[in-house]
Every structure is written in structure tokens, then in C-alpha cells.
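Aim 2, interim progress. The first record below pairs a target sequence with its C-alpha cells.
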Amino acid sequence: MSPFPRMVLLGSTILTGLTGLIYWWMDAFLEPTNEWSIINHPWQPWILKAHILVAPVMVFAVGLVFADHIWRHVRARRPDGRRTGLTMLWIVAPMIMTGYLIQAVTAPGWLTALAWAHIGTGVLFLGGLSIHYWILGRRR
């Protein structure tokens, strides 16, 4: 893979993951700033906006890497990192879909289910990408 797609994918994934995890922590573990507040931290809306702005860059980077790296390696049947790479492909699709649906769904039950699915697939994607790079780094 050429350096530009790798840099865009890693940078956008780190920023998306970091903003997502910070937002989840603020939403789930902090207490509201006052009894009438719907936010738990003054930076919570800004972290969410940052997550929503950087996530499409990560989606673009996944598409860029798919065209430049994944599809070529699948067709060539390269064994290096194949299991972790293909597993991440199966994880990234529901992660992206739940991220978009969270912004459109209003029913509380569905919203809760989508949020947990998004958090779970997001954490799996971050872990999968880390393992993928660690395995490939060890083989080089």
C-alpha cells in the first residue's frame, strides 16, 4: 500500500476512534453539569461534532485502501494478514451503517441498540486494525 492511503486511514481511524471513545466516556460515565442539563461535559457537543466530521474521512480512506490494497491482495490470494484484513471488512460495514443510522433514527429502543452496535463494531475495528498492523509488522 502506498504511504498516502495508509496515512489517511491510520490518521482518520485514530481521530475517529479517539473522539468516539471520548464521547462514549462523557455520555456514559460522567454526571450532568447541572440537574437540567442533557450533556455531561461542556466539551461533549464538540467531541460529537468532531467525531461526525472526521468519520467520513475514515470511510473515504477505507474505500481508498479497498481500491489500492484490499482488492488487489484478495485477487492475488496473498496470505499475509488475510484473516485480520477480511475480518475487518466484515466489521467496517455494520460500523459505518450504524453510525449513519444513529443520526436518522428517533425511536429510543432502536437508538440504544444502534448505539451499542456502533460502539461494539467501532472497538472491534480499532482492535482489528491494530492487530492487522502488528501481524504485518512482525512478518516484515
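The second target in this work package is listed in the same format:
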Amino acid sequence: MRWSGLLVAVVVALGLMAGGSDVARADPGGVTAGHDLLETVSEQGAESYINFGCQPLPPGFFGPGSDPFDGQVKLQGDPFDTFGAYSGLSPTDTIWERLEDTGESFPAEIHVEIVQMELMSTVPIIVTYYGGMNPEFWLMEVRVKDGQPEQVPGTMTVQHDEGTDGGTFDIELPVVVDLIFTQLAPPGMTITYEDYGPLEYQAIEEPWCHTANPLAVPPGQEVIEKVGLTTNFFPGIVCGPPRTKTVVELDADLYQCDYAHLDVQAAEKEAEPPAVGGIAEAPDADASPLEATASGGSSAPPYAVIAGIAAGAVLLAAGGWYARRRWHCGY
């Protein structure tokens, strides 16, 4: 009886060690500086736009006699696949960079900066001349390349919700863009408005999670992760369960005028099928423990696995000792 009681105590203790991994993941953890890969949403009720009614393009901008342009231009993503040395990013069209770590005390305020954005008008805009005459169709592109135009960092305030693997964030993100207009009819001129803005984008209490995958909603998709580029912060991810991806809504006002709006979500791709036999792909050898956990889709730290193995060994050893004792004692 004494040995059986001891055996139960050992198994319970090891079980608590193994089960403690979920509690550990729910404890507040620092957010590491890094980049967030985003795609612009232009369907299912979401929309992104620049409203030139707040700050019209001046007369003559498109050539002699062109009228001021004060329309609203709806935007969609123009995805790029590479950023620096990283590839496989499509359908990413926007990247912002969190410039500092947060530490483990929340709420935490850090600086954030737009580093790349590539959008385009969903349909051509109509430019007129001499008071509404001679309409022409032009396409508009919105561009921020890394370092061009020069940006002013904004701020992000990160809140970690108690007992969860994430929380919410507020963001104030000034964005200076180049606007590129291309005439669709001959002669097909291109006109660039350099350093337009800043568009003072803001969002309040948007969700984030330390880990992005596996996603339950939308099914069959996974958020793009790149070791060395993305870290342990994913905007627009509700930790769940179920883990869900949502739209982050950013508004920019100018003198109480609805200047611009941007709907983005974490960039996703079709989830890769599991390996033959159901064995998951091993995490990158160079990945940190946090990155290996995120890429492998498992939250259990190594000590939980070790504890489980130890518990099995104790059970086998105790069972063998008990059987031998019963045989020697003639039971």
C-alpha cells in the first residue's frame, strides 16, 4: 500500500509538471521586435480607400486644363512575394515593423513604422478637363518601398489579457506614400505625386496572439511565418479556441474629414497537407524555442514531453517490482 501510494503521488506530480505547459503559455510574455505581414481586404464588406475630397489633387495636376480631382479611390492589394532576403510572402501587400521589444510588463508602448505597402485602385479613376469635358481613365498605385518615402514612426500600445496567449493593441501609424497615376489611353503618361500624406492611420483594441497557427477560421489556411522576419506577435488573430483570423480596421481622418481607410488581415496561404503517416514537419534547426513552437503548431515545451516519458518509466518499473514481490511472497 505504501508503494502504491508513493506511485500515485509520483505520477500526479509528473502529470502536474506536464500539464503546466498550458498555464505557462497563458502567462504574459514579452513581444519581440519584428515585422507583421499583412494583406489588404477588399471583399466581404471590407474596403480600403483614399478620399481626395479631404485634400483634392489641384487643377492642372494631370496636365493643362485638368480639373481638380476630389473623388474617393477604392484600393486593393498589389501583392509582392519578396522583402529583402525573404521570399514566399505573397499575398502580402503591406508590412509594418515593430521597432522594440515590449518586455513582460503590460500595457507596453513601442514604436512601429510602415516599411512596405503596394496597393492599387480597384477600378480606373475618371479625370476630366475644362470643367467636366474630355473624360480620361487613369489607374492609381499607392507605394511605399523600404526607406522610400522616408517615414516617421508611430506608436503601438500592446495589452496582454490575463489568462490568455494574447490580447489587444492600439496603433497610431503615420504613412507617407507615393501616388503613381498611369493614363490608360495613349499617350499613356505616368505622373507621380511624391510624399503624399501623411495618412494618420489609427486602430483601437484590435486582437493579437503570440502564435498564429493552426488556424480554425478560415479553415484550410495558415498565416505566413518567416523565421527572422516575423516573431511572436500576430495582429488580427484571436487566440481562441478556436484560433480565428479577423480584419484589422485602420482609419485616417483629416480635419474631421474621412480621409482614408485600410482593412488588413494577417497574410495567409493555403495550409500544407500533413506529411505521410501524419508526422508533422520538424521545425527549423536554427529556430529559437519560441519560433520552433510557432512553426510546429504545438505549445508544449520540452519538459512536458520529458515528464510524460518519465511518468511512463516510473509506471513500468513500479509494475515490474510489484509483480516480483507478489511472486516471492507467494501471493
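The longest strand covers residues 190-209. This observation will shape the mutagenesis plan for the next reporting period.
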